[in-house]
Every structure is written in C-alpha cells, then in structure tokens.
Design a protein that fits this description.
- The chain crosses the membrane at residues 14-37.
- The structure is a single chain.
- The chain has 198 residues and is of the alpha+beta class.
- It has two domains: 12-43; 49-189, Immunoglobulin-like (Sandwich), CATH 2.60.40.
- 22% of the residues lie in helices and 50% in strands.
- Strands 3, 4, 5, 7, 8 and 9 form a six-stranded antiparallel β-sheet that branches. Strands 1-2-6 form a three-stranded antiparallel β-sheet.
- It binds 2-acetamido-2-deoxy-beta-D-glucopyranose (2 copies).
Length: 198
Amino acid sequence: MTRKLTQGSATHPLVWFAAIICTVVAIAVIIVSIVVFSGYMIIHPRVPFITVTSAHLDNFQNTEAGLLETEITIVVRAENDNTKAHASFSDTSFMLSFQGLNIARLVAYPFEVNKNSSVDFHYLVQSSSIPLSPELMDQVDISLKRDRIVFNLKGNLRGRWRVGLLGSVKFWGHLNCQLKFHPSNGTYIRSPCSSRAK
Ligand SMILES: *[C@@H]1O[C@H](CO)[C@@H](O)[C@H](O)[C@H]1NC(C)=O
Ligand SMILES: *[C@@H]1O[C@H](CO)[C@@H](O)[C@H](O)[C@H]1NC(C)=O
C-alpha cells in the first residue's frame, strides 16, 4: 500500500489553530468530567423514594344493596437520603384499587423534602358507594371469611434534585404493591412497598 505524504515547507496556520482548539476542547472535557465525577462522589446521590410506612383498615363491608363501604388510613413517606441535595417532588399520584376496581386516587401537591429528611403524608380514604358486581361481592365475602383483604396501590412519582453547582437533576419512581389487611381488626399486614429500585 502506498500512501502519498504531502508535506508543505511550513505547517499551515489553520492546522495549528485546529490542533490548539482540539487540545483545548479535550482538556475542557477532561476537566468537566473530573468536576462532575467528583461532585457525584461527594454528593453521592441517592434517588428519593416513597414508601408505605403503615396503614389501617378502619372499615370494610358490603351493604345489602351491593355497595362497598370502606375506610382506609395509609401513611406514605417521601424520603430523601441525600445529605447534600434538596428534593422537590412534582407529580405524585397513586391509585388504590380492589380487585381491579378503582377506589381512590392519592395525590400529593408538589412538595419539598430537605436534605437527609422525610415527609409523611396521611391519607384517609373513605368510600361508601362503590357498586360491586356479583363476582366482586363473592370476592368480598371470601376475603372477609379468610380475614385477609388485598388492595393494590400503584402509581408514579416524579421530581427534581437540586444538587448545588451541578444544577437540578430529574428523578422518577414507580410504586406497585399490595396492601394486605386483616378485616377483623383492621391490622395492616406488613410487606415491602417502596418505589426504591431493588
Ligand atoms: C441524617 O439523619 C440521620 C437520622 O435522622 C442522622 O443520624 C444522620 O447523622 C444525618 N446525617 C447527616 C449527614 O446529617
Ligand atoms: C389482628 O388479627 C390477626 C388475625 O386474626 C392477628 O394475627 C393479629 O395479631 C391481630 N392484630 C391485633 C393488633 O390485634
């Protein structure tokens, strides 16, 4: 293979200029990477998350007319484990359902969670007139007999971190879990329910 090498008597100034620009850009990229990486190491970001910390089934019964009456207390904690970054949650919305039947939407207005802290939300869900199909009425009867009722809680959260000089970074999470109770005394049967990625 032959390759023709043309070599001028002097390197064209534009070539020098391009080489200098490339070097400067390369150095800038390295510096920015180091700053971002060390910022990351110092701040050690952890995605804020939401957990169901406790719950209670205050009432659960079906009426003669086939309507579901229920009252549930759910305590949801928004946690920001970052010691150097505030978190602001903007879209937080969960749907509580029973056997595919939507019972209530739990929504939080945009809120802030300070560094290394958490905020608790107490939701009281009250429903008195959810019409049940005959199949669902059977399900309710079975659940009451077995003293075990299962609800589903599903939804999303979105927000932003404010990470000092690095600006703000978006985060999001997804919650999909079962809330189980003993209807006889309303006790919540604990099981993991968190938007934190495993
Ligand atoms: C974060 O909070 C925990 C418990 O509230 C506390 O023990 C810990 O010292 C705090 N860490 C920082 C860096 O503030
Ligand atoms: C509620 O009832 C369940 C099952 O009957 C039982 O295991 C549980 O200990 C009870 N909880 C309380 C607080 O009484």
